[in-house]
Design goal:
By secondary structure, the protein is of the alpha+beta class. It has 2 domains: 8-78; 89-155, Roll (Chitinase A, domain 3), CATH 3.10.50. 42% of the residues lie in helices and 22% in strands. It has 4 helices and 5 strands. It has helices at 8-34, 41-70, 74-78, 124-128, and strands at residues 89-94, 99-105, 117-120, 137-142, 145-155. Strands 3-2-1-5-4 form a 5-stranded mixed beta sheet. A hairpin with a 4-residue loop joins strand 1 and strand 2 (99-105). The longest helix is centred in the middle third of the chain and has 30 residues, at 41-70.
Length: 158
């Protein structure tokens, strides 16, 4: 197995999702086997929808298995160069004076402990932090336009 670029929380999240998907897959397969192949078009539409769901589950199982085996998502592997590692913490002062502490996470919906906001490395803000250090001012694009912030601290994981 490759060295993992996934945090313990991200790995646990993936393992939990994989277990749920495998359970869903078993249930879907059983339901598909029990389907009566003869029926009206509404029955066939339902069967087609369940088959598509099963195909999606199979793809996601392969994707998660690959992430767990290689220690990173396919997207992370493609962007490995020039990216903040999972677990990096940064404290920023935004242009409105608000200060916020953030932690780089592998997945946008991954939660962090305490009052730390999750930040993905491939977000505009995450990309703006590449190569920066304490005291630097960064700019990044948002749907509301260009924003700026001052880096108060940036700590790479140990």
């Amino acid at each position: 197995m490759a060295a993992s670029n996934l945090s313990p929380a991200a790995r646990e999240r993936l393992e939990d999702e994989l277990a749920r998907l495998r359970e869903q897959r078993s249930s879907q397969a059983l339901n598909l086997r029990e389907e009566d192949p003869v029926g009206d078009s509404a029955d066939q539409a339902g069967l087609l929808e369940r088959a598509e769901t099963t195909a999606w589950i199979d793809r996601r199982i392969r994707e998660i298995t690959d992430m767990l085996t290689h220690g990173e998502s396919p997207e992370a592997a493609a962007r490995r160069e020039g990216q903040l590692p999972d677990g990096t913490t940064v404290k920023l002062r935004f242009s409105d004076g608000e200060e916020e502490t953030m932690r780089v996470v592998a997945f946008a919906d991954e939660t962090t402990e305490d009052d730390v906001t999750a930040l993905t490395a491939d977000s505009p803000l995450g990309r703006a932090l590449i190569g920066k250090s304490k005291g630097d001012t960064i700019t990044y694009r948002t749907p509301r336009g260009e924003q700026s912030a001052k880096v108060l601290s940036l700590n790479l994981p140990r």
